[in-house]
Amino acid sequence: MVHASSIGHLDVAQFAIWAFWLFFACLVWYLRQEDRREGYPLVNDATGKMKDRGFLYIPEAKTFRMPDGSNVQAPTCKGDDRPVNGTQFDTFPGAPIEPNGNPLAAGVGPGSWNVRPDVTAKTLEGQNLVAPLRVATHFAVPAQQKSPVGFKVIGADGKSAGTVKDLWVDRGESQVRYFELALDAGGVILAPVCFVDVYRGKKIVKINALTSSQFAGVPKTRTSDSVTMQEEEKIAAYFGAGTLYATPDRAEPFL
């Protein structure tokens, strides 16, 4: 007769369950280390000093090979040395920050942005990942839907800001990423698709994040047919800031 007992009253089932719990604990520890490769150690809001990295959760640096052949190490444990362009109301952690100067370009709150490589993202074939339809000619608006190109652009104040000049697509995801707008005040900008509402029946697009006069301040791209990852970050931040700071009443409480 075969016995499951191994050492006294410790049997195979107990070995299995304890082995599972040990494996699970190690897995959780590993995952908690890996999700701290960016953004850590934290910075104390009150003092502005970086907290001690400790020894338990923040892993040692690992080298990652990027698609373009470059190497990136993480974590670097280097803080963001950019000065905060805002005034904190109080000294307790998490106290509100009031932007200095133009709140749409201050880079705080919903308008904050991260430092990213100032180069264009590429597809596996080496093409620019995000490109206008005039360049990515194998993409098109479906025949059953009217293209918004040529539609009027209306801001949060109900006034015209310009017209839709082109659409920019993500070649990897096969979806629209930006609306290219020709402004009434002159110049061309990109508007992230998540801020755009299209009304095909009225032949207008509405962007409630900004008033008509604020579109001129949207960060521009260096070239007319490409956008870098850093430019994308700043463009999205400008529109994000508008959701809270475009008009004074947006920053006030609802009640």
From TrEMBL:
The keyword Transmembrane applies. GO terms for biological process: photosynthesis, light reaction. Residues 7-135 form the Photosynthetic reaction centre H subunit N-terminal domain. Pfam families: PRC, PRCH. Coiled coil: none annotated. The keyword Membrane applies. Keywords: Membrane, Transmembrane, Transmembrane helix. The chain crosses the membrane at residues 12-31. One of its GO terms (cellular component) is plasma membrane light-harvesting complex. Residues 147-204 form the PRC-barrel domain. This is Photosynthetic reaction center subunit H. InterPro entries: Bac_photo_RC_H_C, Photo_RC_H, Photo_RC_H_N, Photo_RC_H_N_sf, PRC-brl_dom, PRC_barrel-like_sf.
